[in-house]
Amino acid sequence: MDRRAAVQSVLLGMLLLVLGGCAGPHMPSGNAPRIGRVYCLRGLMDVFSLGLNDLARELRKEGVRAADMSGSRWRSLAVELEAEAANGEPEEPIVLVGHSYGADNAVRLAWRLKKAGIDVDLLLLLDATAPPPIPDNVIRCVHYYKPTVLGAACPICFAGNPVVLAAGNERTVLLNTVISRETLGADAVGVGHFNVDAAPAIHRACEHEIMAICVLRSSRATQGPHKPDDVAAPVEERSGS
Q1: How far is CA 222 from the centre of its chain?
Q2: Percent of the chain residues topping a pLDDT of 70
Q3: How far is residue 187's CA from residue 183's CA, in Å, rounded to a whole number?
Q4: Cβ proximity of 63 and 92 under 8 Å
Q5: What is the pLDDT of residue 233?
Q6: Out of 79, 85, 102, 228, which residue is the most buried by the measure of CB atoms under 10 Å away?
Q7: Is the dihedral angle over the CA atoms 154, 160, 162, 166 positive or is it negative?
Q8: Distance between CA 129 and CA 157 in Å, rounded?
Q9: Please, which residues bridge with residue 174 across strands?
């Protein structure tokens, strides 16, 4: 393949990713072995968050209904979830996972759902850029982030900073976790903004959190309220309880 053909192939691939991101999430139909639904929101132009596609596939293999989607489609997802709630469909836990701008959009989605009276059971943010504060309809929020010089110098433009709770939010349990060997193990070394979505250490941490929410249907009736064990030492933890 010559250079021109290679460039055309790359551009075509990027175009297909963008066009694919224009569609809503393809959530598997029917009941899965585990309760709940997980929506993975990719970041800018869907190009830099493809590890979330893999995370969704891993979750489906474990019996979780999970979908990956463009973070820019968060409004469409909000409409779908609002319609389901209005139609009285059975409530199941909602988990939102977002990377970079997709993380910012996941928080925006949580705010939209708050207006509709819909809770987000778990909000997992992977190095959010400059998200709004976390609203109180989020039960638990875990943010994995990597501090940077640019983030410290200009937090409204660059990732690398902890997220905060909205004023008056005394309900959400918030954990901000710096990505490091100490918090997530040896294979977290070298993980930064552009590969956090695909890092095995992050996938393990996310799956641990998600499985504590999306329990097996067969065991739900016998289990009491559950709370995930901390998967890493948080930099900050705030709780309304």
Answers
A1: 28
A2: 81
A3: 11
A4: no
A5: 46
A6: 102
A7: positive
A8: 7
A9: 141, 238
The neighbouring-strand residues paired with 34 are 216
Looking up tokens 């989607």, which residue turns up? 69
Ordered alpha helix ranges (H), 71-167: 74-86, 101-115, 149-153
- Angle (nearest 5°) at CA 41 between 18 and 169: 145
Place of tokens 């979505």: 197
Phi and psi angles of residue 213, each rounded to the nearest 5 degrees, phi first: -95, -45
Task: Classify strands 65-70 and 94-99 as parallel, antiparallel or unpaired.
Answer: unpaired
Q: Which of 13-27, 51-65, 144-158, 166-180 has the lowest mean pLDDT?
A: 13-27
Q: Decide the pairing of beta strands 65-70 and 122-126.
A: unpaired
CB neighbour list of residue 30: distance below 8 Å, 6 or more residues apart = none
Residue 154 to residues 106, 188, 189: CA-CA distances in angstroms?
21, 25, 24
Please tell me the distance from the alpha carbon of residue 220 to that of residue 236, in angstroms, as a whole number: 31
Rounded-to-integer distance, Cα 75 and Cα 105, Å: 9
| pLDDT grade for 188, boundaries at 50, 70 and 90 | very high
Cα separations in angstroms, 156 against 28, 71, 72: 36, 19, 19
Task: For the beta carbon of residue 46, count every other beta carbon within 10 angstroms.
Answer: 26
For 224, phi and psi rounded to 5 degrees? -85, -170
Residue with tokens 């474990």: 62
Report the Cα 108 to chain-centroid distance in Å.
12
Contacts of 63 (CB under 8 A, 6+ apart): 32, 33, 34, 216
Question: pLDDT tens across 42-52, in order?
Answer: 999 888 899 99
Task: State the pLDDT at residue 196.
Answer: 98
